[in-house]
Amino acid sequence: MEKSLTIGKVASRAGVGVETVRFYERQGLLLEPDRRASGYRQYGEDVVARLRFIRRAKELGFTLKEVAELLALRHDPAATRSDVREKVRAKVEDIEAKVRDLRRIRGVLLGLAETCHGHGPADDCPILRAIDPPAEGREAKMGEAAPEVGAVVVTGKSGVRTARRRT
User: Which pLDDT does position 140 carry in this prediction?
Assistant: First the structure.
């Protein structure tokens, strides 16, 4: 017979919090366990392994939706290794896109830092002016000039407007 564990023991062994276990149950990543006569949930060791899998997949950048897909593949007899590899390759593409975005943002921020000499009142800071939204009734366009600081406005996927020096 499989050993029955409390939610606290399961969480501790898996390296997550009790609320995380409950959250994963609500998200459908874990089945809600049977309850003892006392009303306490009773978990098996398999739940610890599943929680560790979820935690590790999240550490690797997978979203909960993607973790659910990986778990489904794991338990689908028709799924192949190729299916799993495809999910991983898609995640790598996502990460590479994020790295490109972060490098671009880093460059923009470094360029913004160069526009400000660091002295004077903040309300006249060229960095704040560059970040300031466009005039009401007008949308900023990708690559739109921001002449007051000699920068180019760039709107990323997140909708955040940043500026970089013209080169």
Answer: 53
- Does residue 86 come out as left (phi exceeding 0), alpha (psi in the -120 to 50 range) or beta? alpha
CATH number of 7-60: 1.10.1660.10
Where are the domain boundaries for CATH 1.10.1660.10 in the chain?
Answer: 7-60
DSSP characters over 23-59: HHHHTTSSPPPPB-TTS-B-B-HHHHHHHHHHHHHHH
pLDDT tens profile 114-143:
999 889 999 889 999 888 877 776 665 544
Task: Compute the half-sphere exposure of residue 18: CA atoms within 13 Å on the CB side of its CA.
Answer: 6
Residues lower than pLDDT 70 in the chain: 1-2, 137-167
Residue with tokens 């009790």: 18
Cα atoms in the Cβ-side hemisphere of radius 13 Å centred on 70: 23
The whole-angstrom separation of Cα 38 and Cα 92 is 46
